[in-house]
Amino acid sequence: MPELPEVETVMRGLEPVIMGAEITALDQRRKNLRIPFPDKFEKRLKGRKILSLRRRAKYILIGLDKGEILVIHLGMSGRVSIIPKGEDVELEKHDHLVLSFDNGVTIIYNDPRRFGMVFLVAESEWESHKNFAHLGPEPLGNDFSAPILQARLKDKNTSIKQALLDQRVVVGVGNIYACEALFMAGINPLKKARLVKGAKIELLVKAIRDVLTRAIKAGGSTLKDYRHADGQLGYFQHNFTVYNQEGAKCPTCDCDINKTNGIKRIIQSGRSTFYCPKKQK
Ligand SMILES: [Zn+2]
After folding, report:
1. Is 68 a catalytic residue?
2. Are 75 and 113 in contact (CB under 8 A)?
Protein backbone atom coordinates (compact mmCIF):
# COMPACT_ATOMS: atom_id res chain seq x y z
CA MET A 1 0.00 0.00 0.00
CA PRO A 2 1.43 3.40 -0.89
CA GLU A 3 2.25 5.33 2.28
CA LEU A 4 2.90 9.06 2.62
CA PRO A 5 6.51 8.90 1.33
CA GLU A 6 5.42 7.06 -1.81
CA VAL A 7 2.62 9.55 -2.43
CA GLU A 8 5.04 12.44 -1.95
CA THR A 9 7.42 10.76 -4.40
CA VAL A 10 4.68 10.35 -7.02
CA MET A 11 3.76 14.02 -6.60
CA ARG A 12 7.39 15.14 -6.94
CA GLY A 13 7.85 12.87 -9.94
CA LEU A 14 4.82 14.32 -11.73
CA GLU A 15 5.61 17.94 -10.95
CA PRO A 16 8.41 18.64 -13.45
CA VAL A 17 6.66 16.57 -16.12
CA ILE A 18 3.16 18.08 -16.15
CA MET A 19 3.48 21.48 -14.45
CA GLY A 20 2.26 24.13 -16.87
CA ALA A 21 1.13 21.55 -19.43
CA GLU A 22 -2.37 21.37 -20.87
CA ILE A 23 -4.52 18.25 -20.87
CA THR A 24 -5.40 17.32 -24.44
CA ALA A 25 -7.28 14.03 -23.90
CA LEU A 26 -8.57 11.63 -21.29
CA ASP A 27 -9.15 7.96 -22.03
CA GLN A 28 -11.45 6.77 -19.25
CA ARG A 29 -11.58 2.99 -19.42
CA ARG A 30 -14.16 2.26 -16.73
CA LYS A 31 -16.87 4.12 -14.80
CA ASN A 32 -15.40 4.03 -11.32
CA LEU A 33 -12.73 3.08 -8.84
CA ARG A 34 -13.78 3.15 -5.17
CA ILE A 35 -16.09 6.00 -6.19
CA PRO A 36 -17.41 6.90 -9.66
CA PHE A 37 -15.28 9.13 -11.85
CA PRO A 38 -16.76 12.64 -12.25
CA ASP A 39 -19.58 13.19 -14.75
CA LYS A 40 -18.39 14.44 -18.14
CA PHE A 41 -14.86 13.83 -16.90
CA GLU A 42 -13.09 14.22 -20.23
CA LYS A 43 -15.01 17.37 -21.11
CA ARG A 44 -14.10 18.91 -17.78
CA LEU A 45 -10.38 18.08 -18.11
CA LYS A 46 -9.73 18.77 -21.77
CA GLY A 47 -7.95 22.07 -22.35
CA ARG A 48 -7.18 22.57 -18.65
CA LYS A 49 -3.74 23.68 -17.62
CA ILE A 50 -1.80 22.30 -14.62
CA LEU A 51 -1.02 25.19 -12.29
CA SER A 52 0.15 23.45 -9.10
CA LEU A 53 0.89 20.13 -7.42
CA ARG A 54 0.55 19.53 -3.69
CA ARG A 55 0.08 16.66 -1.29
CA ARG A 56 -2.36 16.59 1.63
CA ALA A 57 -2.22 13.39 3.72
CA LYS A 58 -2.14 10.66 1.05
CA TYR A 59 -3.95 12.72 -1.59
CA ILE A 60 -2.23 14.34 -4.57
CA LEU A 61 -3.87 17.66 -5.42
CA ILE A 62 -3.34 18.81 -8.99
CA GLY A 63 -4.43 22.43 -9.31
CA LEU A 64 -6.07 23.23 -12.67
CA ASP A 65 -6.91 26.58 -14.19
CA LYS A 66 -10.51 27.77 -13.75
CA GLY A 67 -10.41 27.01 -10.02
CA GLU A 68 -10.65 23.23 -9.84
CA ILE A 69 -8.42 20.56 -8.34
CA LEU A 70 -7.92 17.08 -9.74
CA VAL A 71 -7.50 14.83 -6.69
CA ILE A 72 -5.75 11.44 -6.86
CA HIS A 73 -5.65 8.90 -4.04
CA LEU A 74 -3.72 5.71 -4.78
CA GLY A 75 -5.78 3.53 -2.44
CA MET A 76 -4.23 0.10 -1.81
CA SER A 77 -2.58 -0.55 -5.14
CA GLY A 78 -2.69 2.57 -7.32
CA ARG A 79 0.28 3.39 -9.52
CA VAL A 80 1.09 6.28 -11.77
CA SER A 81 3.28 5.84 -14.82
CA ILE A 82 4.84 8.49 -17.02
CA ILE A 83 5.26 7.76 -20.71
CA PRO A 84 7.71 10.32 -22.11
CA LYS A 85 7.11 12.15 -25.37
CA GLY A 86 7.75 10.01 -28.43
CA GLU A 87 7.39 6.66 -26.67
CA ASP A 88 4.59 4.24 -27.52
CA VAL A 89 1.72 4.00 -25.07
CA GLU A 90 1.01 0.32 -24.54
CA LEU A 91 -1.90 -0.19 -22.22
CA GLU A 92 -1.97 -3.01 -19.70
CA LYS A 93 -4.61 -4.66 -17.60
CA HIS A 94 -5.92 -2.34 -14.84
CA ASP A 95 -4.89 0.84 -16.67
CA HIS A 96 -8.03 2.84 -15.87
CA LEU A 97 -7.17 6.41 -16.85
CA VAL A 98 -4.87 7.68 -19.57
CA LEU A 99 -4.20 11.43 -19.57
CA SER A 100 -2.47 13.04 -22.54
CA PHE A 101 -0.74 16.40 -22.39
CA ASP A 102 0.21 19.00 -24.99
CA ASN A 103 3.91 18.46 -24.24
CA GLY A 104 3.66 14.89 -25.54
CA VAL A 105 3.71 13.21 -22.11
CA THR A 106 1.15 10.57 -21.19
CA ILE A 107 0.20 9.73 -17.61
CA ILE A 108 -1.41 6.38 -16.82
CA TYR A 109 -3.28 5.52 -13.63
CA ASN A 110 -3.26 1.75 -12.92
CA ASP A 111 -5.00 0.17 -9.94
CA PRO A 112 -5.64 -3.61 -9.78
CA ARG A 113 -7.62 -3.50 -6.53
CA ARG A 114 -9.48 -0.27 -7.40
CA PHE A 115 -9.51 1.19 -3.89
CA GLY A 116 -8.10 4.41 -5.30
CA MET A 117 -10.04 7.59 -6.04
CA VAL A 118 -9.81 10.24 -8.72
CA PHE A 119 -12.19 13.18 -8.44
CA LEU A 120 -12.59 16.93 -8.97
CA VAL A 121 -13.20 19.52 -6.28
CA ALA A 122 -13.45 23.31 -6.42
CA GLU A 123 -10.28 25.04 -5.22
CA SER A 124 -12.40 27.16 -2.86
CA GLU A 125 -14.05 24.11 -1.29
CA TRP A 126 -11.43 21.41 -0.98
CA GLU A 127 -10.53 22.06 2.65
CA SER A 128 -14.15 21.65 3.75
CA HIS A 129 -14.73 18.63 1.46
CA LYS A 130 -15.69 15.47 3.36
CA ASN A 131 -12.42 13.73 2.47
CA PHE A 132 -10.32 16.58 3.90
CA ALA A 133 -12.28 18.43 6.58
CA HIS A 134 -11.44 16.04 9.44
CA LEU A 135 -7.73 15.70 8.68
CA GLY A 136 -5.19 16.53 11.39
CA PRO A 137 -1.83 18.22 10.88
CA GLU A 138 0.75 17.16 8.31
CA PRO A 139 3.59 15.33 10.10
CA LEU A 140 6.21 17.26 8.13
CA GLY A 141 4.40 20.59 8.35
CA ASN A 142 4.99 23.49 10.71
CA ASP A 143 1.77 22.85 12.60
CA PHE A 144 2.94 19.46 13.86
CA SER A 145 4.80 19.94 17.15
CA ALA A 146 5.10 18.37 20.59
CA PRO A 147 2.45 20.66 22.21
CA ILE A 148 0.01 19.99 19.36
CA LEU A 149 0.50 16.23 19.48
CA GLN A 150 0.23 16.27 23.28
CA ALA A 151 -3.09 18.16 23.05
CA ARG A 152 -4.44 15.63 20.55
CA LEU A 153 -3.43 12.65 22.65
CA LYS A 154 -4.54 13.85 26.07
CA ASP A 155 -8.07 12.38 25.95
CA LYS A 156 -7.13 9.26 24.00
CA ASN A 157 -7.67 5.99 25.80
CA THR A 158 -6.48 3.94 22.84
CA SER A 159 -2.89 2.74 22.56
CA ILE A 160 -0.34 5.21 21.22
CA LYS A 161 0.11 3.00 18.14
CA GLN A 162 -3.60 3.19 17.31
CA ALA A 163 -3.66 6.93 18.02
CA LEU A 164 -0.87 7.54 15.49
CA LEU A 165 -3.00 5.87 12.81
CA ASP A 166 -5.94 8.18 13.58
CA GLN A 167 -6.00 10.77 10.78
CA ARG A 168 -7.50 13.35 13.14
CA VAL A 169 -4.38 13.14 15.35
CA VAL A 170 -1.81 13.36 12.54
CA VAL A 171 -2.17 12.38 8.89
CA GLY A 172 -0.29 9.88 6.80
CA VAL A 173 1.94 8.17 9.39
CA GLY A 174 0.60 4.70 8.55
CA ASN A 175 1.27 1.33 10.13
CA ILE A 176 4.89 0.90 9.05
CA TYR A 177 6.09 4.35 10.04
CA ALA A 178 4.16 4.27 13.32
CA CYS A 179 6.12 1.12 14.28
CA GLU A 180 9.41 2.65 13.19
CA ALA A 181 8.82 5.97 14.98
CA LEU A 182 7.73 4.32 18.25
CA PHE A 183 10.86 2.17 18.19
CA MET A 184 13.06 5.16 17.55
CA ALA A 185 11.39 7.14 20.36
CA GLY A 186 11.52 4.18 22.76
CA ILE A 187 7.78 4.14 23.39
CA ASN A 188 5.86 0.90 23.92
CA PRO A 189 3.14 0.69 21.24
CA LEU A 190 0.69 -0.67 23.82
CA LYS A 191 1.03 2.34 26.11
CA LYS A 192 -2.11 4.43 26.47
CA ALA A 193 -1.88 7.48 24.21
CA ARG A 194 -2.88 9.91 26.99
CA LEU A 195 0.01 8.71 29.15
CA VAL A 196 2.68 9.63 26.58
CA LYS A 197 3.92 13.01 27.73
CA GLY A 198 6.74 15.53 27.99
CA ALA A 199 10.14 14.49 26.69
CA LYS A 200 8.67 11.32 25.13
CA ILE A 201 6.32 13.42 23.01
CA GLU A 202 9.28 15.51 21.83
CA LEU A 203 11.13 12.32 20.89
CA LEU A 204 8.07 10.93 19.12
CA VAL A 205 7.52 14.06 16.99
CA LYS A 206 11.19 14.03 16.00
CA ALA A 207 11.07 10.29 15.24
CA ILE A 208 7.97 10.62 13.04
CA ARG A 209 9.57 13.45 11.09
CA ASP A 210 12.85 11.55 10.78
CA VAL A 211 11.40 8.25 9.51
CA LEU A 212 9.19 9.98 6.95
CA THR A 213 11.91 12.35 5.78
CA ARG A 214 14.34 9.48 5.32
CA ALA A 215 11.78 7.48 3.33
CA ILE A 216 10.99 10.46 1.10
CA LYS A 217 14.69 10.93 0.50
CA ALA A 218 15.01 7.26 -0.48
CA GLY A 219 12.06 7.70 -2.82
CA GLY A 220 13.55 10.84 -4.32
CA SER A 221 16.71 9.01 -5.24
CA THR A 222 14.63 6.56 -7.29
CA LEU A 223 12.99 9.36 -9.27
CA LYS A 224 15.87 10.14 -11.58
CA ASP A 225 15.84 6.52 -12.69
CA TYR A 226 12.17 6.21 -13.53
CA ARG A 227 12.71 6.31 -17.26
CA HIS A 228 15.19 3.48 -17.08
CA ALA A 229 12.83 1.36 -15.04
CA ASP A 230 9.25 0.92 -16.18
CA GLY A 231 8.08 4.50 -15.79
CA GLN A 232 6.27 3.72 -12.56
CA LEU A 233 6.47 6.23 -9.79
CA GLY A 234 6.29 5.85 -6.10
CA TYR A 235 7.30 2.33 -5.14
CA PHE A 236 10.72 1.74 -3.74
CA GLN A 237 12.71 -0.59 -1.55
CA HIS A 238 12.73 0.24 2.12
CA ASN A 239 14.99 -0.86 4.89
CA PHE A 240 13.00 -0.97 8.08
CA THR A 241 14.43 -1.23 11.55
CA VAL A 242 11.60 -3.15 13.22
CA TYR A 243 8.80 -3.46 10.67
CA ASN A 244 8.64 -7.06 9.34
CA GLN A 245 11.71 -7.92 11.44
CA GLU A 246 10.09 -10.35 13.88
CA GLY A 247 12.77 -12.36 15.71
CA ALA A 248 15.63 -10.19 14.44
CA LYS A 249 18.08 -8.52 16.77
CA CYS A 250 17.30 -4.84 17.31
CA PRO A 251 20.07 -2.91 15.61
CA THR A 252 20.36 -0.02 18.04
CA CYS A 253 19.45 -1.69 21.31
CA ASP A 254 21.48 -3.56 23.93
CA CYS A 255 18.82 -6.22 24.56
CA ASP A 256 20.05 -9.82 24.56
CA ILE A 257 18.40 -11.69 21.69
CA ASN A 258 18.81 -15.00 23.56
CA LYS A 259 16.60 -13.67 26.34
CA THR A 260 14.15 -11.54 24.36
CA ASN A 261 13.86 -13.64 21.15
CA GLY A 262 14.40 -10.42 19.24
CA ILE A 263 11.83 -8.05 17.82
CA LYS A 264 8.34 -8.99 18.84
CA ARG A 265 5.22 -8.99 16.67
CA ILE A 266 1.74 -8.40 18.08
CA ILE A 267 -1.61 -7.52 16.51
CA GLN A 268 -3.33 -4.22 17.33
CA SER A 269 -6.69 -3.47 15.68
CA GLY A 270 -5.97 -6.13 13.08
CA ARG A 271 -2.60 -4.64 12.11
CA SER A 272 0.84 -6.04 12.90
CA THR A 273 2.98 -4.10 15.34
CA PHE A 274 6.71 -4.80 15.65
CA TYR A 275 8.65 -3.62 18.68
CA CYS A 276 11.32 -4.31 21.28
CA PRO A 277 9.76 -4.74 24.74
CA LYS A 278 13.10 -3.87 26.38
CA LYS A 279 13.83 -0.61 24.57
CA GLN A 280 10.19 0.49 24.31
CA LYS A 281 8.69 1.17 27.73
ZN1 LIG B 1 15.88 -4.34 21.72
Report:
1. no
2. yes
